[in-house]
């Protein structure tokens, strides 16, 4: 073979390898993007599941006590924030609000031994606790997938492919504050009115 033909074949092979590499990176990025979306959907399912339990919990508590209006208002606002969240940041804000509000609900419930012993209240508490664990697991999985995504679009050469196809935007982590560090203030003065 003449040298010109060999150079032509070498160029064709190099171009073919590059095209296949770009296709493989593109498909990998698309698959990872779908995985991030699925991970977020799992969080969303658990958040909505928990939000659906809240009205039953509040009805059970209200049946035993003249419920503190500010606690009810806070729980309702937090539930609405979670259900209307469009991003991880908005969902995290709602999560933080709800965690604080639920702590207040359970603090109010402590003042009523008959409520604490009520089967509905106990079942709802257990269901909320179980759902809380599922939310934590889903959040961890989501954040792990987001870390892989953010790494993938940042490292060479996949960063070039990601930016070529407009997929170079980092995803937000779903981070919530540690509510255990915050103190709960409950005012029982409204309960006797």
Would you mind describing this structure in some detail?
This protein has 193 residues and is mainly alpha-helical. It has helices at residues 3-62, 69-83, 88-109, 113-117, 119-152, 158-164. It has a single domain, classed as LemA-like domain (de novo design (two linked rop proteins)). The protein is rod-shaped. The protein is built from 6 helices and no strands.
Looking at the structure, the CATH topology is de novo design (two linked rop proteins)
What general form does the structure show? Answer: rod-shaped
Helix/strand order: HHHHHH
What is the CATH homologous superfamily assignment? Answer: LemA-like domain
SS class: mainly alpha
Q: Helical segment tally?
A: 6
Radius of gyration (Å) = 26 Å
Briefly characterize the structure.
The protein has 193 residues and is mostly helical. It has six helices and no strands.
Give the SSE layout.
Elements: H1 3-62, H2 69-83, H3 88-109, H4 113-117, H5 119-152, H6 158-164
Helix pairs in contact: 1-2, 1-5, 2-3
Which features would summarize this protein structure in a list?
74% helix, mainly alpha, 193 residues, de novo design (two linked rop proteins), 6 helices
